[in-house]
Amino acid sequence: MDQAERKRKLMIGGALLATLIAVVLVEEEETSTDIVETVQPVKTASTSRDRAKNQESSAELLDVGKLGQRKFNPLAGELFVSTTWAPKQPPVSFEQQAALAEQIKKATPPPAPTAPPLQFKYSGKAVTDDETWVFLSQSGENFITKIGGKINDKYRLDSINDSTIAVTYLPLNIKQTLTINNKIAGTFR
Length: 189
Known about the structure:
It is flat and about 125 Å long. The model has no long low-confidence stretch (mean pLDDT 79). It has helices at 3-29, 48-61, 94-107; strands spanning 121-127, 132-138, 141-146, 150-151, 155-160, 164-169, 174-179, 186-188. The chain is an alpha+beta fold. The strands form 2 sheets. A 4-stranded mixed beta sheet has the order 3-2-1-8, with no helix packed on it.
């Protein structure tokens, strides 16, 4: 047996001995005193006069007249009643609501129209003598156009470079840019 194991066993044995001594001391301190009281049997009232005396003595202890005086709140039993600290707002008539709606319409201008997002996918381009032709697709339809050409009568191709295509949404005359991903598309020369 090595030194560490011997030390551990001595510590455990010492703790056990201390626990046993504490148990013995506690048991000696606890001296139980048995108190025995005799219980007198309850005498039942044999006569009506005795019964009346018993009722009078119990009436002195309990005032039955006070039982019906407590008033209960009808909402007390509802567990999920909504409670708010905000003051109640007066009801608003239909005419007041209509007038308020008109004021809001007049105060806020309608949002400016915007062009729909570009749904075109760049497929490639072909460069001939002086012209660059662009190949685009949209929901299964293919389009071939050059600078200044129209696509679907809604867009006009304005310019093209290596990374972007500039188009104009014709109904609102809004310029938009389509980014070219050269890894997907091809270039024909």
